[in-house]
Amino acid sequence: MMTIETTVQFPDKPPKVEQPKPGRPRGPRKKLGGPFLASLPPMQRKFVEQLYATPGIGQERALKLAGYKGNDVAAKKCAHRYMKYPAVQAAILELGGELYRAKLPKAIYALDAVMGDPTHRDHVKVLHGVLDRVGLHPVMESKQTVTHNINIDDMKAHLRVLLAKPALKALLPPEPPPIDTDFIEVAETDD
Asked: What top-level class would CATH report for the domain 35-102?
């Protein structure tokens, strides 16, 4: 029989591994925007980025921050013209959608907080909304009984009264004119 002895030495402290700081992204930061924003000329691209970088400043101010050198009147006209371009509109939608998708974890956390608090005034609304989104729709059922009592004589009398009014007579199609024609009487023959 053979015996093997192994000696392992453990360090007093584990080796220090550098962890990323919480809240900071790993690696290079991805630039916002997609193909629509990338296809814009530089001034228009900066204009759209400024609209989102400093919300509420207005189109004229966003254009000035993007590097526009003209006077205020020209900047206002140019910004208005940029906002009408379909490519700029598509880039604004694209960037807005991307920014809202980035807020999804925060929205889910807020919904979870409301769902976890049965005393919250919107607790039931949030539960219904979440169940509806995941496909568990509430079953709606209603039963109604409708009874119609029709008296033909009363209906005919009512129609006569209505048709006696000139305004309703105008709605009716005109009577067809009589057909004027000559006719020949044909006697039957025995064949």
From this structure: mainly alpha
Residue 16 has a pLDDT of 61
| Interacting residues of 35 by C-beta distance below 8 A, sequence separation 6+ | 94
Domain boundaries, the chain: 35-102, 104-133
Sign of the C-alpha dihedral computed for residues 44, 48, 49 and 51 taken in this order: positive
Would you state the pLDDT for residue 41?
Answer: 92
CB 32: neighbour CB atoms within 10 A?
14
Here the tokens at position 75 are 């900047």
pLDDT in tens, 107-134: 888 888 988 899 989 998 988 888 888 8
- Full-prediction pTM beyond 0.90? no
Q: Give CA separation, 53 vs 22, 62, 129, 131, 141, in Å.
A: 23, 9, 32, 35, 49
User: In 28-169, which residue ranges form alpha helices assigned H by DSSP?
Assistant: 35-38, 42-53, 59-65, 72-84, 86-102, 104-115, 123-133, 152-164, 166-169
Q: How far is CA 52 from the centre of its chain?
A: 20
Distance CA 82, CA 48 (A): 9
| pLDDT tens figures, 62-77 | 999 999 998 999 999 9
